[in-house]
Amino acid sequence: MVNILIGCTGSVATMKLPQLVSGLLVLNHPQIKVRIVVTEHAKHFFDEKDIHTDAEIFQDSDEWAVWSKRGDPVLHIELGKWADIFVIAPLDANTLAKIANGLCDNLLTCTARAWELSKPLIFCPAMNTKMYQHPLTVTQINSLVSWGYKHVPVIEKTLICGDTGAGAMAEVDTIIGVVESFIT
Ligand SMILES: Cc1cc2nc3c(=O)[nH]c(=O)nc-3n(C[C@H](O)[C@H](O)[C@H](O)COP(=O)(O)O)c2cc1C
């Protein structure tokens, strides 16, 4: 059994979430389970009905819905314990900055902040070329790499905003290949 947690942020590349989920679920490995944690902005870029029904989706409101008193589960801790692999795809500039600096103000960033460093965390940045070229980006990516997280670099293409250049999320097949390398 391999439990894969996908984190999705407010990047247009979240439109590829259905493809990523389905691709992971058909990997030739027994009993892959997938859960998804989304930011509020990520929710703009997909429709729940397009996501494979085996993949449960968690959002910020769930964190507080399951906790009311001492002894109740704390969702970001439970998701971290459940997952063997955490794949943040896409990782937008905002959440990259938060994770690099230790901020934890939503379900995704709390899960990342509490992530056990001994388990794989794969991150796939996605942002506009101008954001990507800002010196903050490489500094923040290097922080995550220094903690042992696996970086799946952006690719160059014409982005949704019309600009052409580096910043697009890696292809879904590339991301699935990296996840698979951690499973086998
Ligand atoms: C249509 C649209 C597309 C966006 N795409 C990206 C993107 O690919 N990468 C990025 O870093 N921010 C992108 N943003 C900006 C983020 O959604 C914004 O920074 C947001 O605050 C991110 O919140 P989150 O990190 O909590 O998901 C986009 C915004 C809009 C309106």
**Helical amount:** 25-40%
| Number of structurally distinct domains | 1
SSE succession? EHEEHHEHHEHHEEEH
Largest beta sheet: what is the strand line-up?
A: 3-2-1-4-5-6
What's the end-to-end separation, in Å? 12 Å
CATH class: Alpha Beta
Query: Main beta sheet: strand number and arrangement?
Result: 6 strands, parallel
CATH architecture: 3-Layer(aba) Sandwich
Structural class: alpha/beta
Mean pLDDT: 96
What would your notes on this structure say?
It is a single chain. This protein is globular. The chain is of the alpha/beta class and 184 residues long. The two termini are 12 Å apart. The strands form 2 sheets. It has a 6-stranded parallel sheet, sandwiched between helices. α1 links the parallel β1 and β2. 37% of the residues lie in helices and 22% in strands. The chain has 8 helices and 8 strands, in the order βαββααβααβααβββα. The mean pLDDT is 96. The chain has one domain: Flavin prenyltransferase-like (Rossmann fold). The structure holds flavin mononucleotide. Flavin mononucleotide binds next to α4.
Features:
6-stranded parallel sheet; 8 strands; alpha/beta; Rossmann fold; 22% strand
Summarize the structure.
Helices cover 37% and strands 22% of the residues. The protein contains eight helices and eight strands; from the N terminus they run E-H-E-E-H-H-E-H-H-E-H-H-E-E-E-H.
Topology:
Blueprint: E1 2-8, H1 17-25, E2 32-38, E3 56-58, H2 60-65, H3 75-82, E4 85-91, H4 93-101, H5 107-113, E5 121-125, H6 129-133, H7 135-146, E6 150-151, E7 155-158, E8 164-168, H8 172-183
Parallel strand pairs: 1-2, 1-4, 2-3, 4-5, 5-6
Antiparallel strand pairs: 7-8
Helix pairs in contact: 1-8, 3-5, 4-7
Flavin mononucleotide binds next to helix 4.
